[in-house]
Specification:
This protein has about 400 residues and is α/β, with parallel strands linked by helices. It is built from 17 helices and 13 strands.
Amino acid sequence: MFARHIKKLLEKALTRSPIVLLNGARQVGKSTLAHQVEQAHNYTYLTFDDEVIYAAAKNDPAGFISQLTKPVIIDEVQRVPELFLPLKIDVDNNRTPGRYLLTGSANPLLIPRLGDSLAGRMEIIELMPLSQGEIFHHQETFIDNLFLDQPLTQPKKYITRDELYAHIVRGGYPSVQHTDVEDSDAWMRSYINLLLQRDIKDLAQIEKITELPNLLNILAHRTSNLLNVAEVARDCKMVTQTVHRYMSLLETIFLITLHQPWHTNISLRSIKSPKLYMIDTGLLCYLTGLTTERVKQEPVLIGKILENFIVSELKKAATWSTTKPNFYHFRTNDGREVDIILENRAGQIVAIEIKGSDTVGISDFKGIKYLQEKVPDRLIKGIVLYTGSQMVPFGNNLYAIPIPYLWA
Protein backbone atom coordinates (compact mmCIF):
# COMPACT_ATOMS: atom_id res chain seq x y z
CA MET A 1 0.00 0.00 0.00
CA PHE A 2 1.25 3.46 -0.91
CA ALA A 3 1.16 6.33 1.60
CA ARG A 4 -0.74 9.25 0.09
CA HIS A 5 0.65 12.73 0.65
CA ILE A 6 -2.82 14.28 0.62
CA LYS A 7 -3.94 12.37 3.73
CA LYS A 8 -2.94 15.04 6.26
CA LEU A 9 -4.81 17.71 4.30
CA LEU A 10 -7.88 15.47 4.16
CA GLU A 11 -7.87 14.89 7.92
CA LYS A 12 -7.38 18.61 8.54
CA ALA A 13 -10.31 19.46 6.28
CA LEU A 14 -12.54 17.11 8.29
CA THR A 15 -11.87 19.20 11.39
CA ARG A 16 -13.26 22.41 9.84
CA SER A 17 -15.88 21.55 7.19
CA PRO A 18 -19.20 19.71 7.62
CA ILE A 19 -18.77 18.07 4.22
CA VAL A 20 -15.48 17.08 2.63
CA LEU A 21 -15.38 15.67 -0.87
CA LEU A 22 -12.41 13.47 -1.78
CA ASN A 23 -12.50 13.87 -5.51
CA GLY A 24 -10.62 12.16 -8.34
CA ALA A 25 -10.67 9.58 -11.08
CA ARG A 26 -11.79 6.03 -10.45
CA GLN A 27 -9.14 3.63 -9.18
CA VAL A 28 -6.74 6.28 -7.86
CA GLY A 29 -7.15 5.14 -4.24
CA LYS A 30 -10.09 7.19 -2.89
CA SER A 31 -11.83 4.21 -1.28
CA THR A 32 -8.57 3.01 0.29
CA LEU A 33 -7.97 6.42 1.80
CA ALA A 34 -11.59 6.67 2.93
CA HIS A 35 -11.30 3.30 4.69
CA GLN A 36 -8.24 4.59 6.55
CA VAL A 37 -10.33 7.52 7.81
CA GLU A 38 -13.15 5.11 8.69
CA GLN A 39 -10.86 2.98 10.84
CA ALA A 40 -9.06 5.89 12.50
CA HIS A 41 -12.11 8.05 13.28
CA ASN A 42 -15.03 5.61 13.62
CA TYR A 43 -16.99 6.56 10.50
CA THR A 44 -19.84 4.55 8.99
CA TYR A 45 -18.96 3.50 5.42
CA LEU A 46 -21.39 3.18 2.48
CA THR A 47 -20.73 2.92 -1.24
CA PHE A 48 -23.04 3.56 -4.16
CA ASP A 49 -21.21 0.86 -6.08
CA ASP A 50 -23.39 -1.41 -3.92
CA GLU A 51 -26.58 -1.60 -5.99
CA VAL A 52 -28.85 -2.09 -2.96
CA ILE A 53 -27.53 1.04 -1.23
CA TYR A 54 -27.61 2.87 -4.55
CA ALA A 55 -31.28 1.96 -5.08
CA ALA A 56 -32.24 3.03 -1.56
CA ALA A 57 -30.63 6.45 -1.94
CA LYS A 58 -32.03 6.94 -5.44
CA ASN A 59 -35.57 6.05 -4.35
CA ASP A 60 -35.73 8.38 -1.32
CA PRO A 61 -32.70 10.72 -1.04
CA ALA A 62 -34.07 12.78 1.87
CA GLY A 63 -35.11 9.73 3.85
CA PHE A 64 -31.77 8.08 3.14
CA ILE A 65 -29.83 11.04 4.55
CA SER A 66 -32.07 11.38 7.61
CA GLN A 67 -31.52 7.74 8.58
CA LEU A 68 -27.72 7.71 8.30
CA THR A 69 -25.53 7.33 11.35
CA LYS A 70 -23.05 10.22 11.33
CA PRO A 71 -20.19 10.73 10.77
CA VAL A 72 -20.50 8.82 7.52
CA ILE A 73 -18.49 8.11 4.39
CA ILE A 74 -20.46 7.91 1.15
CA ASP A 75 -18.39 6.47 -1.68
CA GLU A 76 -19.01 7.35 -5.37
CA VAL A 77 -21.57 10.00 -4.44
CA GLN A 78 -21.83 11.35 -8.00
CA ARG A 79 -23.99 8.34 -8.88
CA VAL A 80 -26.90 9.86 -6.91
CA PRO A 81 -26.94 13.62 -7.63
CA GLU A 82 -30.38 13.83 -6.00
CA LEU A 83 -28.58 13.46 -2.67
CA PHE A 84 -26.94 16.88 -2.75
CA LEU A 85 -30.01 18.94 -1.85
CA PRO A 86 -30.85 16.78 1.23
CA LEU A 87 -27.18 17.04 2.22
CA LYS A 88 -27.41 20.82 2.01
CA ILE A 89 -30.50 20.90 4.24
CA ASP A 90 -28.93 18.51 6.75
CA VAL A 91 -25.69 20.45 7.21
CA ASP A 92 -27.56 23.75 7.39
CA ASN A 93 -29.27 22.30 10.47
CA ASN A 94 -26.04 20.89 11.91
CA ARG A 95 -22.68 22.27 10.78
CA THR A 96 -20.52 20.01 12.95
CA PRO A 97 -17.21 19.51 11.11
CA GLY A 98 -16.57 16.14 9.53
CA ARG A 99 -20.19 14.91 9.41
CA TYR A 100 -19.79 13.74 5.84
CA LEU A 101 -16.80 12.45 3.91
CA LEU A 102 -17.87 11.99 0.31
CA THR A 103 -15.83 10.46 -2.46
CA GLY A 104 -16.58 11.18 -6.08
CA SER A 105 -15.30 10.25 -9.52
CA ALA A 106 -16.76 13.30 -11.26
CA ASN A 107 -15.69 16.89 -10.81
CA PRO A 108 -18.60 18.77 -9.15
CA LEU A 109 -17.19 22.10 -10.33
CA LEU A 110 -18.03 20.98 -13.88
CA ILE A 111 -21.54 19.81 -12.90
CA PRO A 112 -23.45 22.97 -11.88
CA ARG A 113 -26.33 21.18 -10.15
CA LEU A 114 -23.84 19.42 -7.86
CA GLY A 115 -21.25 22.10 -7.21
CA ASP A 116 -23.69 24.97 -6.71
CA SER A 117 -25.92 23.17 -4.21
CA LEU A 118 -23.12 22.73 -1.65
CA ALA A 119 -21.20 25.97 -2.23
CA GLY A 120 -19.81 27.23 1.08
CA ARG A 121 -20.60 23.97 2.82
CA MET A 122 -18.21 21.55 1.18
CA GLU A 123 -14.40 21.46 0.96
CA ILE A 124 -12.92 19.61 -1.98
CA ILE A 125 -9.70 17.60 -1.72
CA GLU A 126 -8.34 16.27 -4.99
CA LEU A 127 -6.70 12.84 -5.22
CA MET A 128 -4.82 12.05 -8.40
CA PRO A 129 -2.98 8.90 -9.51
CA LEU A 130 0.20 8.12 -7.60
CA SER A 131 2.99 10.65 -7.95
CA GLN A 132 6.56 9.50 -8.45
CA GLY A 133 7.30 10.74 -4.94
CA GLU A 134 4.56 8.51 -3.55
CA ILE A 135 5.95 5.57 -5.52
CA PHE A 136 9.46 6.30 -4.23
CA HIS A 137 8.17 7.11 -0.70
CA HIS A 138 9.27 10.73 -0.69
CA GLN A 139 7.09 13.84 -0.48
CA GLU A 140 7.75 16.32 -3.27
CA THR A 141 8.45 19.96 -2.42
CA PHE A 142 9.52 21.05 -5.90
CA ILE A 143 6.69 23.53 -6.48
CA ASP A 144 7.11 25.31 -3.16
CA ASN A 145 10.90 25.42 -3.68
CA LEU A 146 10.40 27.18 -7.01
CA PHE A 147 8.57 30.06 -5.36
CA LEU A 148 11.05 30.52 -2.54
CA ASP A 149 13.31 33.57 -2.77
CA GLN A 150 16.51 31.52 -2.84
CA PRO A 151 18.65 29.61 -5.35
CA LEU A 152 17.84 26.00 -6.18
CA THR A 153 20.26 23.31 -5.04
CA GLN A 154 21.59 20.21 -6.74
CA PRO A 155 19.36 17.11 -6.28
CA LYS A 156 20.99 14.03 -4.77
CA LYS A 157 19.27 11.14 -6.54
CA TYR A 158 18.76 10.26 -10.19
CA ILE A 159 17.18 7.56 -12.26
CA THR A 160 18.36 6.46 -15.69
CA ARG A 161 16.60 7.49 -18.87
CA ASP A 162 15.29 3.92 -19.34
CA GLU A 163 13.92 3.92 -15.78
CA LEU A 164 12.23 7.25 -16.47
CA TYR A 165 10.61 5.88 -19.63
CA ALA A 166 9.40 2.81 -17.73
CA HIS A 167 7.69 5.00 -15.12
CA ILE A 168 6.10 7.15 -17.81
CA VAL A 169 4.67 4.11 -19.60
CA ARG A 170 3.43 2.52 -16.36
CA GLY A 171 1.67 5.65 -15.13
CA GLY A 172 0.29 6.28 -11.68
CA TYR A 173 -2.76 4.07 -11.12
CA PRO A 174 -2.05 1.97 -8.00
CA SER A 175 -3.48 -1.24 -9.51
CA VAL A 176 -0.84 -1.46 -12.27
CA GLN A 177 2.29 -0.69 -10.25
CA HIS A 178 3.29 -4.34 -9.89
CA THR A 179 1.76 -5.92 -12.99
CA ASP A 180 3.31 -7.11 -16.25
CA VAL A 181 2.48 -5.54 -19.61
CA GLU A 182 -0.29 -8.01 -20.46
CA ASP A 183 -2.07 -7.54 -17.14
CA SER A 184 -1.61 -3.78 -17.29
CA ASP A 185 -3.15 -3.63 -20.77
CA ALA A 186 -6.09 -5.75 -19.62
CA TRP A 187 -6.63 -3.44 -16.65
CA MET A 188 -6.51 -0.32 -18.84
CA ARG A 189 -8.98 -1.81 -21.31
CA SER A 190 -11.42 -2.70 -18.52
CA TYR A 191 -10.95 0.69 -16.90
CA ILE A 192 -11.85 2.61 -20.05
CA ASN A 193 -14.91 0.44 -20.59
CA LEU A 194 -16.09 1.08 -17.03
CA LEU A 195 -15.72 4.85 -17.38
CA LEU A 196 -17.33 5.13 -20.78
CA GLN A 197 -20.07 2.54 -20.37
CA ARG A 198 -21.23 3.37 -16.83
CA ASP A 199 -19.86 6.62 -15.44
CA ILE A 200 -20.59 8.63 -18.57
CA LYS A 201 -24.12 7.18 -18.68
CA ASP A 202 -24.63 8.17 -15.03
CA LEU A 203 -23.76 11.77 -15.89
CA ALA A 204 -25.47 12.27 -19.22
CA GLN A 205 -27.78 10.72 -21.75
CA ILE A 206 -25.59 10.01 -24.75
CA GLU A 207 -27.14 8.47 -27.80
CA LYS A 208 -23.94 7.29 -29.49
CA ILE A 209 -21.78 5.96 -26.68
CA THR A 210 -19.72 4.01 -29.26
CA GLU A 211 -18.24 7.29 -30.53
CA LEU A 212 -16.47 8.04 -27.25
CA PRO A 213 -13.61 5.49 -27.52
CA ASN A 214 -12.67 6.88 -30.93
CA LEU A 215 -12.76 10.45 -29.61
CA LEU A 216 -10.62 9.49 -26.62
CA ASN A 217 -8.09 7.82 -28.90
CA ILE A 218 -7.89 10.87 -31.16
CA LEU A 219 -7.42 13.16 -28.16
CA ALA A 220 -4.65 10.90 -26.82
CA HIS A 221 -2.72 11.35 -30.07
CA ARG A 222 -3.06 15.14 -29.69
CA THR A 223 -1.75 15.34 -26.14
CA SER A 224 0.45 18.33 -25.21
CA ASN A 225 -0.79 20.21 -28.28
CA LEU A 226 -3.01 23.24 -28.67
CA LEU A 227 -6.61 22.10 -28.85
CA ASN A 228 -8.36 22.66 -32.16
CA VAL A 229 -11.89 21.35 -31.67
CA ALA A 230 -12.78 21.82 -35.34
CA GLU A 231 -9.93 19.50 -36.37
CA VAL A 232 -10.90 16.95 -33.74
CA ALA A 233 -14.51 17.07 -34.95
CA ARG A 234 -13.39 16.52 -38.53
CA ASP A 235 -11.22 13.53 -37.57
CA CYS A 236 -14.07 12.04 -35.51
CA LYS A 237 -16.69 12.82 -38.14
CA MET A 238 -18.74 14.57 -35.46
CA VAL A 239 -20.20 18.05 -35.21
CA THR A 240 -18.18 20.57 -33.18
CA GLN A 241 -20.92 21.07 -30.60
CA THR A 242 -20.98 17.33 -29.87
CA VAL A 243 -17.19 17.22 -29.49
CA HIS A 244 -17.36 20.08 -26.99
CA ARG A 245 -20.03 18.23 -25.01
CA TYR A 246 -18.17 14.90 -25.02
CA MET A 247 -14.86 16.53 -24.08
CA SER A 248 -16.57 18.24 -21.16
CA LEU A 249 -17.71 14.81 -19.96
CA LEU A 250 -14.21 13.34 -20.35
CA GLU A 251 -12.85 16.25 -18.32
CA THR A 252 -15.57 15.77 -15.70
CA ILE A 253 -14.55 12.12 -15.09
CA PHE A 254 -10.84 13.05 -14.92
CA LEU A 255 -9.59 11.56 -18.18
CA ILE A 256 -8.40 14.78 -19.79
CA THR A 257 -7.48 18.25 -18.58
CA LEU A 258 -7.05 21.58 -20.36
CA HIS A 259 -4.52 24.32 -19.59
CA GLN A 260 -5.67 27.78 -20.52
CA PRO A 261 -3.23 30.30 -22.05
CA TRP A 262 -1.47 32.68 -19.69
CA HIS A 263 -2.17 36.32 -20.36
CA THR A 264 -1.26 39.70 -18.92
CA ASN A 265 -2.33 43.29 -19.39
CA ILE A 266 0.83 43.81 -21.44
CA SER A 267 0.21 43.02 -25.10
CA LEU A 268 2.26 39.92 -25.90
CA ARG A 269 0.27 38.79 -28.97
CA SER A 270 -0.38 35.44 -27.33
CA ILE A 271 -2.42 32.58 -28.74
CA LYS A 272 -5.72 32.01 -26.90
CA SER A 273 -6.25 28.26 -27.47
CA PRO A 274 -6.07 25.85 -24.51
CA LYS A 275 -3.58 22.99 -24.37
CA LEU A 276 -4.74 19.39 -24.03
CA TYR A 277 -3.35 16.76 -21.62
CA MET A 278 -4.36 13.32 -20.39
CA ILE A 279 -4.56 12.82 -16.63
CA ASP A 280 -2.29 9.74 -16.63
CA THR A 281 0.56 8.77 -18.95
CA GLY A 282 0.02 5.04 -18.39
CA LEU A 283 -3.44 5.38 -19.88
CA LEU A 284 -2.05 7.70 -22.55
CA CYS A 285 0.61 5.19 -23.58
CA TYR A 286 -1.97 2.40 -23.69
CA LEU A 287 -4.21 4.46 -26.00
CA THR A 288 -1.33 5.41 -28.31
CA GLY A 289 0.31 1.95 -28.30
CA LEU A 290 3.54 3.23 -26.80
CA THR A 291 5.61 0.64 -24.92
CA THR A 292 8.93 0.93 -23.09
CA GLU A 293 10.69 -1.05 -25.80
CA ARG A 294 9.24 1.10 -28.57
CA VAL A 295 10.38 4.25 -26.78
CA LYS A 296 13.94 2.89 -26.52
CA GLN A 297 13.96 2.19 -30.28
CA GLU A 298 12.26 5.47 -31.26
CA PRO A 299 12.94 8.01 -28.47
CA VAL A 300 11.49 10.83 -30.61
CA LEU A 301 8.05 9.39 -29.77
CA ILE A 302 8.38 10.36 -26.11
CA GLY A 303 8.45 14.15 -26.64
CA LYS A 304 4.81 15.11 -26.15
CA ILE A 305 4.21 12.27 -23.68
CA LEU A 306 7.18 13.44 -21.60
CA GLU A 307 5.57 16.87 -21.38
CA ASN A 308 2.27 15.27 -20.36
CA PHE A 309 4.12 13.27 -17.68
CA ILE A 310 5.73 16.36 -16.15
CA VAL A 311 2.45 18.29 -16.22
CA SER A 312 0.77 15.38 -14.42
CA GLU A 313 3.52 15.17 -11.78
CA LEU A 314 3.37 18.91 -11.14
CA LYS A 315 -0.42 18.87 -10.82
CA LYS A 316 -0.20 16.03 -8.31
CA ALA A 317 2.40 17.88 -6.25
CA ALA A 318 0.30 21.05 -6.39
CA THR A 319 -2.54 19.35 -4.50
CA TRP A 320 -0.46 19.22 -1.30
CA SER A 321 1.83 22.20 -1.88
CA THR A 322 1.35 25.35 0.16
CA THR A 323 1.64 27.44 -3.02
CA LYS A 324 -1.19 25.76 -4.95
CA PRO A 325 -0.40 27.59 -8.21
CA ASN A 326 -2.62 27.92 -11.24
CA PHE A 327 -1.42 26.16 -14.39
CA TYR A 328 -1.17 27.79 -17.82
CA HIS A 329 0.77 27.62 -21.06
CA PHE A 330 2.13 30.47 -23.15
CA ARG A 331 2.60 30.88 -26.90
CA THR A 332 2.82 33.95 -29.11
CA ASN A 333 1.71 34.29 -32.71
CA ASP A 334 5.35 34.42 -33.84
CA GLY A 335 6.27 31.09 -32.20
CA ARG A 336 7.71 32.03 -28.80
CA GLU A 337 6.37 29.57 -26.27
CA VAL A 338 6.69 28.18 -22.76
CA ASP A 339 5.25 24.75 -21.99
CA ILE A 340 4.09 25.47 -18.43
CA ILE A 341 3.41 28.67 -16.50
CA LEU A 342 2.83 28.34 -12.76
CA GLU A 343 1.26 31.42 -11.15
CA ASN A 344 0.82 31.91 -7.41
CA ARG A 345 -1.80 34.05 -5.69
CA ALA A 346 0.56 37.04 -5.64
CA GLY A 347 0.78 36.98 -9.45
CA GLN A 348 4.38 35.70 -9.50
CA ILE A 349 5.13 33.17 -12.20
CA VAL A 350 7.57 30.35 -12.83
CA ALA A 351 8.14 29.41 -16.48
CA ILE A 352 8.98 25.78 -17.27
CA GLU A 353 10.15 24.38 -20.58
CA ILE A 354 10.53 20.63 -21.19
CA LYS A 355 13.24 18.99 -23.29
CA GLY A 356 13.67 15.27 -23.90
CA SER A 357 17.45 15.49 -24.28
CA ASP A 358 20.59 15.06 -22.18
CA THR A 359 21.87 18.49 -23.21
CA VAL A 360 20.53 22.04 -22.87
CA GLY A 361 21.62 25.25 -24.59
CA ILE A 362 20.73 28.89 -24.13
CA SER A 363 18.39 28.66 -27.12
CA ASP A 364 16.16 26.35 -25.05
CA PHE A 365 15.44 29.36 -22.82
CA LYS A 366 14.20 31.51 -25.73
CA GLY A 367 10.56 31.64 -24.63
CA ILE A 368 11.47 32.01 -20.96
CA LYS A 369 13.89 34.87 -21.65
CA TYR A 370 11.19 36.60 -23.70
CA LEU A 371 8.91 36.57 -20.66
CA GLN A 372 11.82 37.63 -18.45
CA GLU A 373 12.21 40.72 -20.61
CA LYS A 374 8.49 41.50 -20.84
CA VAL A 375 7.42 40.84 -17.24
CA PRO A 376 10.64 40.97 -15.17
CA ASP A 377 8.74 41.90 -12.01
CA ARG A 378 6.57 38.79 -12.21
CA LEU A 379 8.86 36.02 -13.52
CA ILE A 380 10.84 34.76 -10.53
CA LYS A 381 12.38 31.62 -12.05
CA GLY A 382 12.80 30.02 -15.45
CA ILE A 383 13.38 26.27 -15.67
CA VAL A 384 14.26 23.86 -18.46
CA LEU A 385 13.57 20.29 -17.31
CA TYR A 386 15.67 17.78 -19.24
CA THR A 387 16.85 14.15 -19.13
CA GLY A 388 20.45 14.93 -18.13
CA SER A 389 21.98 14.44 -14.68
CA GLN A 390 23.28 17.87 -13.63
CA MET A 391 21.58 21.05 -12.52
CA VAL A 392 23.17 23.94 -14.46
CA PRO A 393 22.54 27.69 -13.94
CA PHE A 394 21.97 29.65 -17.16
CA GLY A 395 21.81 33.17 -15.79
CA ASN A 396 19.81 35.10 -13.24
CA ASN A 397 17.21 32.65 -11.85
CA LEU A 398 17.46 30.46 -14.95
CA TYR A 399 18.24 26.76 -14.48
CA ALA A 400 18.48 23.54 -16.45
CA ILE A 401 17.27 20.83 -14.06
CA PRO A 402 17.13 17.03 -14.35
CA ILE A 403 13.55 15.73 -14.50
CA PRO A 404 13.96 13.54 -11.36
CA TYR A 405 14.43 16.78 -9.37
CA LEU A 406 10.62 16.88 -9.32
CA TRP A 407 10.60 14.13 -6.73
CA ALA A 408 14.26 13.61 -5.69
